[in-house]
């Protein structure tokens, strides 16, 4: 049985194009729903995943996780993207935040997206 094809990797130019397409029609919805920033999270996760070596993947079981939950002292912590080694824990953690709510008022999206 053939393996299902993976979706093509989201390169940075395509990620930015999708972010503009998501943001331009309704900046408030894009920022508040996090749909805008999740496109960037996906791009970052795919870039990191494409750089894992076969040894890291197969021998160590290293993987990339979007919206990973990490154990904390007082409570668990959610991070946007993490490279995780099952035996040693997180190797790399990325927290990407959008500041678009501070510049996304009415009439401003054309200056940002145009």
Number of helices: 5
Order of helices and strands: HHHHEEEH
Distance between the termini: 46 Å
Shape: flat
The fraction of residues in strands falls at 15-25%
Give the overall average pLDDT: 82
Strand order in the sheet with the most strands: 1-2-3
Rg, please?
Answer: 17 Å
Report the helical percentage: 40-55%
Low-confidence parts: none
Counting helices, strands and paired strands, the structural category is alpha+beta
Counting DSSP E segments of at least 2 residues, the number of strands comes to 3
Explain the overall architecture.
- By secondary structure, the chain is of the alpha+beta class.
- It is built from five helices and three strands; from the N terminus they run ααααβββα.
- The longest helix is centred in the middle third of the chain and has 16 residues, at 35-50.
In short:
With 114 residues, this protein is of the alpha+beta class. It is built from 5 helices and 3 strands.
List the helices and strands and how they pair.
Elements: H1 12-23, H2 27-32, H3 35-50, H4 54-60, E1 63-70, E2 77-85, E3 89-94, H5 109-113
Helix pairs in contact: 1-3
Name some characteristics of this structure.
114 residues; alpha+beta; 40% helix; flat
């Amino acid at each position: 049985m053939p393996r299902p094809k993976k979706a093509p990797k989201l390169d940075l130019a395509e990620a930015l194009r999708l972010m503009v397409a998501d943001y331009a029609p309704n900046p408030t919805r894009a920022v508040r729903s996090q749909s805008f920033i999740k496109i960037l999270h996906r791009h970052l996760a795919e870039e990191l995943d494409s750089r894992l070596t076969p040894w890291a993947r197969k021998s160590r079981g290293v993987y990339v996780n979007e919206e990973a939950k990490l154990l904390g002292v007082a409570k668990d912590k959610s991070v946007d993207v993490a490279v995780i080694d099952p035996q040693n824990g997180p190797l790399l953690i990325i927290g990407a935040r959008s500041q678009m709510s501070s510049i996304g008022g009415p009439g401003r999206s054309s200056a940002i997206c145009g």
